[in-house]
């Protein structure tokens, strides 16, 4: 399986981190959305979600996990 690519629109770089978030208005507490992110866009994606007051965290991308969607 190929390495996941960054979730930032137009970016084709390999992801090295996961931006983990949820929208508390529509997602249950145990629901987590995962966005893969490259080093250049991890802060952008995290800040985009934090500005909307979504719970958000950044985790390293596990080496053996399938590509998140």
Give structural notes.
The chain is globular and about 30 Å long. It contains 1 helix and 3 strands; from the N terminus they run ββαβ. The protein has one domain. By secondary structure, it is an alpha+beta fold. Helices cover 13% and strands 22% of the residues. Strands 2-1-3 form a 3-stranded antiparallel sheet, with helices on one face.
Task: Please tag this protein with its features.
69 residues; alpha+beta; 3-stranded antiparallel beta sheet; 1 helix; 3 strands; 22% strand; globular
Please summarize what this structure is.
The chain is built from 1 helix and 3 strands. The protein is an alpha+beta fold and 69 residues long. 22% of the residues are buried.
- Number of domains in the coordinates? 1
The secondary structure category is alpha+beta
Q: Mean pLDDT score, rounded?
A: 91
Q: Give Rg in angstroms.
A: 12 Å
Q: What's the number of extended β-strand segments?
A: 3
| Outline type | globular
Strand content: 15-25%
Helix content: 10-25%
Order of neighbouring strands in the sheet with most strands = 2-1-3
Biggest β-sheet description: 3 strands, antiparallel
Helices and strands, in order, run as EEHE
Distance between the termini: 14 Å
Stretches where pLDDT falls below 50 for ≥5 residues? none
Please count the helical segments: 1
Walk me through the topology.
Layout lengths: L16 E5 L11 E5 L4 H9 L5 E5 L9
Antiparallel strand pairs: 1-2, 1-3
């Amino acid at each position: 399986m190929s390495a996941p690519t960054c979730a930032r629109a137009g970016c084709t770089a390999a992801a090295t981190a996961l931006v983990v978030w949820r929208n508390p208005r529509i997602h249950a507490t145990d629901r987590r959305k995962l966005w893969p992110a490259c080093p250049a866009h991890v802060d952008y994606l995290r800040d985009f979600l934090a500005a909307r007051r979504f719970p958000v965290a950044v985790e390293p991308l596990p080496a053996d996990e399938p590509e998140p969607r």
